[in-house]
Model the fold of this input.
Amino acid sequence: MKFYLYKGLKKPLVLFGLRGKYIYRALGILASTMVLAALISSFTGLLGALITIALGGAAIYMMFKIQDKKGLYNKTKNHNEIFVYPKRIGTKKLKRK
Done:
């Protein structure tokens, strides 16, 4: 008899709709956007910071789109294909004596 412990850990981590590796990428984009906005605002003012924040938001939006297109795992998606698996278990009728 097998007892499966920690059953929920096999599911990917989800945060604000992002799953797994895309969470870390979005957090990296967010952190770098904040740093770049602070640097650019010191040189160009408020307009440069707003443009940088807008570009960071667009990059996070692209993370959502990439996640929807490529998925969480590096598996090839087979669309519109039909798989036929051979029957492995025979269904012979038993004859009673």
Q: What stands out?
A: The beta strands are 14-15, 18-19. Helices lie at 21-44, 46-70. The chain is about 50% helix and 5% strand. The two ends are 35 Å apart (CA to CA).
